[in-house]
Amino acid sequence: MDIVTAPSLNVATDSECSATDRWQQSLRNAIRTPEELCEILQLPDAYRIAARRSAATFQLFVPREYLAKIPPGDPEHPLLRQVLPLAEETSTDGGFSRDPVGDGDALITPGLLQKYESRALLVVTGACAVHCRYCFRRYFPYDSVPKGEDAWQPALNKIAEDSSLDEVILSGGDPWMLVDSRLQSLTEQIAQIPHIRRLRIHTRLPSMIPSRVTDALLRTLTATSLTTILVVHINHALEIDEQVALAVRKLVDSGTMVLNQSVLLRGVNDSVLALESLCRELVNLRVLPYYLHQLDRVEGSMHFEVDDSRAKELISALRSRLPGYAVPRLVRERAGGTSKEVLA
Ligand code: SF4
After folding, report:
1. How far apart are CA 159 and CA 194, in angstroms?
2. Mean pLDDT of the residues in the chain
3. Distance from the CA of 233 to the center of ligand 1, in angstroms?
4. Per-residue pLDDT tens over the stretch 103-128
5. Ligand 1 in contact with 276 (CB < 6 A)?
6. Per-residue pLDDT tens for 154-194?
């Protein structure tokens, strides 16, 4: 079986860290075993045993900042469900696969994917600040992802050769797991390609380890000539504490367009109340709720699925309660599709 391990790729070593790089310390201190997680949150033994089995295929990894928002003794807590390996991860059926969104077929060259016209996606690292149990890339072959600046050159050459592209998406893993110097260098190389006008960054770090939003990172965002669009990933309003709000405000204040994408997850945010509070919190922070994704049907995630009719009901209820700009589009990604399918 493939095993996805905790972050190790492209993360700074101790010698690269400045004293202010608390986020590096947070990564080193993150929870990596079901035993530790279950002990801190005082979960019954049955959860520890199940988590140990399910984490054997996709390792548990949770930063302490996120864990601190979860009260002890509540295995059903919406934040815990996103990170706790459950026995249900071993259930599957034919509709669930290891590559539900067709990443393999979209690969142009190692680390570079193209699914839709005018955009290409660079997988710059396999590392993340958290292992989301529903992750559609939990089986992605990250070993083949280029590591280091020289290794990115073939992918950058491909982007430079294709003048139909005008946007590059940095993805992963989480691109903000790269240290600032590497991010800056990559951004500069992309900005030198004349037909590339926009850089989109998909990251979960601001809500997982908000200290990742360093001054150096903000400078990288603002110094480039590219129009930068940041897509954060927050699924529940309880993820937004004071520190997260502060980090998000810094990002918005930098002039970067900030959007949010969420995944609709059973037992996490599949209620009108949960989605409404999330959307309100986001717009109060000047972040537009952009997409609400139907689950990508990856093996091990079946217990998170919400059926389409319920998902549409939820969006319809949001429309009656929120201003239009605060209602996300309900979408599904289909392998081989020419765009995302908009369901509502
Ligand atoms: S942050 Fe994104 S890529 Fe990383 S585990 Fe979560 S869903 Fe997957």
Report:
1. 10
2. 93
3. 9
4. 999 999 999 999 999 999 999 999 99
5. no
6. 999 999 999 999 999 999 899 999 999 999 999 999 999 99
Distance CA 107, CA 323 (A): 39
For the record, the structure tokens of 131 come out as 């292992």
Say yes or no to pLDDT of 4 above 70: no
The tokens describing 92, both together, are 């599957």
For ligand 1, mutation pick of 130, 208, 236, 295 (most atoms within 8 Å of CB): 130
Tell me which residue has its CA closest to atom 6 in ligand 1. Answer: 132
- Contact between residue 168 and residue 195 where contact means Cβ atoms under 8 Å apart: no
Angle at which helices 215-223 and 242-253 pack, to 10 degrees? Answer: 30
**Ligand 1 atom having least distance to the Cα of 134:** 7
**What phi, psi does 324 have (nearest 5°)?**
-55, -40
- What are the structure tokens assigned to 169, written together? 């998406």
Q: Is the CB of 295 under 6 A from ligand 1?
A: no
* 204 ligand 1 Cβ < 6 A: yes
Write the pLDDT tens digit of every residue in 235-274.
Answer: 999 999 999 999 999 999 999 999 999 999 999 999 999 9
Ligand 1 site, residue 135, Cβ cutoff 6 A: yes
Cis status of the peptide bond prior to 255, with omega within 30 of 0? no
Contact 125, 178 (CB under 8 A): yes
**What is the reported pLDDT for 172?**
86
CB neighbourhood size of 18 (10 A): 11
Quick one: average pLDDT of 312-317? 98
For residue 197, the CA-to-ligand 1 centroid distance in Å is: 26
Pairwise CA distance, residues 141 & 277, whole Å: 36
What is the edge-to-edge ordering of all strands in the sheet holding 341-342? 107-109, 112-113, 119-123, 167-171, 198-203, 227-233, 257-263, 288-293, 329-332, 341-342
